[in-house]
Amino acid sequence: MLAVAADGFHGAFSRHQELRTTSDPTRLFVPTAECAYWAAALDEQLWEWSGYQDARVRSQGGLLLPGLRYIRNLKTHGLPMTLRKIDGAIFPIVFPKVFNEVVWLPLEDLPEPGKLHRRTEEQRNTYREHLAGKPTRHTLQAVEAFLILLANLPDSPLAI
């Protein structure tokens, strides 16, 4: 079932990329939320694979996963409300050029978690440092690259 979850992430990421140049950037909210759900589910399930933790700390995409788990845990039913459209170009500029971005909300604009667990603080710090205020395209591209890397490691449960 991990391969199904990885396919779910890749499909949502593909829709995110297709919609990136839309005239209504809020259409990115749904595939972004889907990506966060799938990435958090994969992160939870992959802990049982012996090669996962080492790979996770050596990859930018892997380092982002606690932040995605934080927002998924924080606002399961309101995940799209953790995003904001901003006007103006953000570097690196990619083509076709667009003059707005969808970014993760600043940490202080999110409500406090209703339920705390042992990883909440790590997840909150990751969100603050690596996601808050950043374009979703940067976050999701890094996680996409990480999942592809994982799928190509020996004995990977995500093997293609």
Instruction: List segments where confidence is low: pLDDT < 50 over at least 5 consecutive residues.
Output: none
Number of strands: 2
Helix content: 40-55%
Strands of the widest sheet, in order across it, are 1-2
SSE string = HHHHEEHH
| Rg over CA atoms | 15 Å
Provide structural commentary.
This protein has helices spanning 2-19, 29-46, 52-57, 60-74, 120-131, 136-151; strands at residues 83-87, 100-104. The protein is mainly alpha-helical. The chain has a two-stranded antiparallel sheet with strand order 1-2. Helix 1 runs antiparallel to helix 2, helix 4 (60-74) crosses helix 5 (120-131) and helix 4 crosses helix 6 (136-151). The longest helix has 18 residues, at 2-19. The relative contact order is 0.19. The mean pLDDT is 85.
Brief account:
The chain has 160 residues and is mainly alpha-helical. It has six helices and two strands; from the N terminus they run ααααββαα.
Offer a few descriptive terms.
two-stranded antiparallel ribbon, 160 residues, 6 helices, 2 strands, globular, mainly alpha
Write the layout of secondary structure elements.
Elements: H1 2-19, H2 29-46, H3 52-57, H4 60-74, E1 83-87, E2 100-104, H5 120-131, H6 136-151
Antiparallel strand pairs: 1-2
